[in-house]
Structures are given as C-alpha cells and as structure tokens.
Design a protein that fits this description.
Elements: H1 43-48, H2 52-68, H3 73-87, H4 90-102, H5 107-114, H6 123-136, H7 142-149, H8 154-176
Protein name: Alkylhydroperoxidase family enzyme
Domain Carboxymuconolactone decarboxylase-like: 55-115
GO molecular function: peroxiredoxin activity
Length: 193
C-alpha cells in the first residue's frame, strides 16, 4: 500500500486529468498488441498528481529526455529497463516491459537485461546496459565510458545519462513512497507476461 494517497482524477481540474494517463498507449491499438499488459491511468502519475505543478514539470522533463536523448526506441527502452533492473524497481520494469514490447523489442532482449546476459545483445546495446549498471551504482569509470563512446557520440552519452538519471530518480521516489503496481507484476523473468 502506498505511503501517500494517490490523486483522485476528479480532484484535478478537467484540463489536467489526462496528465494521469500514460502517453505510450496512444501509438498502439489494443488489437495490435502482442501481450496483455495495459497502460491507462498510472499510479506513478496519480502520486505525482498530488502536486499538479510537479506532475506537469516531471512529464515535461520526462518527455524531453524520452524524445531528445539521441537514442532509438529500442535503445531508449534498453536504458530504461536496465535502470529499472539495477535500481530494483518492479514498477518501472513492469511499465517499460509493456512499452518495450509495444516498440517491437523481442522478449529475449528484455530477458538479457534481467538475466544479466548482455552478450546476447548487439554490442552497442550491451554497452548501454553495462554503462547503466555502473551509472545506477555511481561507479562509471573510464573503461565503461570509453566502451559506450565506441558506439555513441558525446551528445548521445549525455542523453543516456539524462534518461537513466530521470528514471533512477523516479525509481527512488516509487520505492520510498511504495507506489503500487496497477496489476500483477510481469516478473523479472517475464513469467506473468
């Protein structure tokens, strides 16, 4: 049970209520989904919605790092899933397994992250996972940085850091406030997919 009450959509001004809903559902029709995971109104946004200005600011920043990181959708989701996994936040993992699948990622690519088998990924994606692991642990060294720099330019590396940092901060908020999943956890091994 969450440590603070979620915002009630009816308590928000009508023009702000859509801030509580996921943006990622907009691009995929339900009949085109290859899984049963759903988006809709999310508890993460209902939590942040207790302060509408905070929710709006977070959604703006999150959208910027999501869209402007310099990463493809698969690379972006690799960074977010690796952040969720290494930060041990089931909520982010669950939500972004859905997004990754909607973006066309193969479940085996997702499992390579949670099973700590990055050699099953393309070299640039394996470098992303290795970098994010060290980033989450505050241990990025020259070797890790250079490995990522072999595949990405400086602007994209900055985007990786901003994206992972955004989701790491969100992970800590979700954990501190014990924000509930909306439905059964998909599982680190996707056992409930």
């Amino acid at each position: 049970m969450a440590r603070i009450d979620y915002a009630n959509p009816e308590g928000l001004p009508a023009e702000k209520r859509d801030l509580l809903d996921t943006l990622s559902d907009a691009d995929v029709d339900d009949d085109e989904r290859s899984h049963s995971l759903e988006g809709g109104t999310l508890n993460v946004y209902r939590t942040l919605g207790r302060t509408v200005a905070l929710l709006e600011g977070f959604r703006g920043y999150g959208s910027t790092v999501w869209l402007e990181s310099g990463l493809s959708p698969h690379e972006r989701e690799t960074v977010i899933l690796a952040t969720a996994y290494y930060a041990d936040t089931a909520y982010e993992w669950h939500q972004h397994v859905r997004v990754a699948l909607d973006e066309g990622m193969d479940p085996e690519e997702i499992l390579a992250i949670s099973r700590e088998e990055p050699d099953r990924l393309e070299p640039e994606r394996a470098a992303l996972v290795a970098y994010v692991e060290r980033f989450v642990d505050d241990e990025v060294d020259d070797e890790t940085h250079e490995r990522l720099a072999d595949h990405y330019d400086e602007e994209t590396i900055l985007g990786v850091c901003a994206l992972s940092g955004c989701y790491l901060g969100l992970a800590r908020l979700l954990q501190a406030l014990e924000v509930d999943l909306e439905n059964e956890f998909v599982g680190w091994d996707l056992e409930n997919l």
